[in-house]
Design brief:
- With 100 residues, this protein is α+β, with helices and mostly antiparallel strands.
- The protein is 55% helix and 14% strand.
- It contains three helices and four strands.
- The strands form two sheets. The chain has a two-stranded antiparallel sheet with strand order 1-2. The protein has a two-stranded antiparallel sheet with strand order 3-4.
- Helix 1 packs antiparallel against helix 3.
- The longest helix has 30 residues.
- The chain is elongated.
- The model has no long low-confidence stretch (mean pLDDT 81).
């Protein structure tokens, strides 16, 4: 039996709310709503960019200190583009439509 309808909750003031961030297919298979995936993905992208920039700068400082400006330019050009690959995977996961 599939339970894909949002669940009603009753608030202390008598209002009803709706929990729709999880779709319960069965006990083993739970999927996230697109809204929750976007929230999680936004936080992941923020963390990815900060950590990636710190790691790229640390490597550049440790390994490229005595290199020419052209080596620095090439390194930062390549590392400036490489972060897009994991970011694309996160964004595609975030924008995946809900299963109805």
């Amino acid at each position: 039996m599939r339970d894909t309808e949002p669940h009603q909750i009753f608030m202390p003031n008598g209002d009803t709310g709706c929990i729709s961030h999880f779709r319960l297919d069965n006990a083993e298979n739970r999927t996230l709503s697109q809204t929750l995936r976007k929230l999680i993905g936004t936080v992941l992208l923020f963390v990815l960019v900060i950590l990636y920039a710190l790691v790229a700068m640390t490597i550049a400082t440790a390994r490229l200190a005595d290199s020419s400006a052209w080596v620095h330019l090439l390194y930062f050009f390549i590392t400036g583009i490489l972060w897009v690959l994991p970011a694309m995977a996160i964004v595609s996961w975030m924008l995946k439509p809900d299963e109805d």
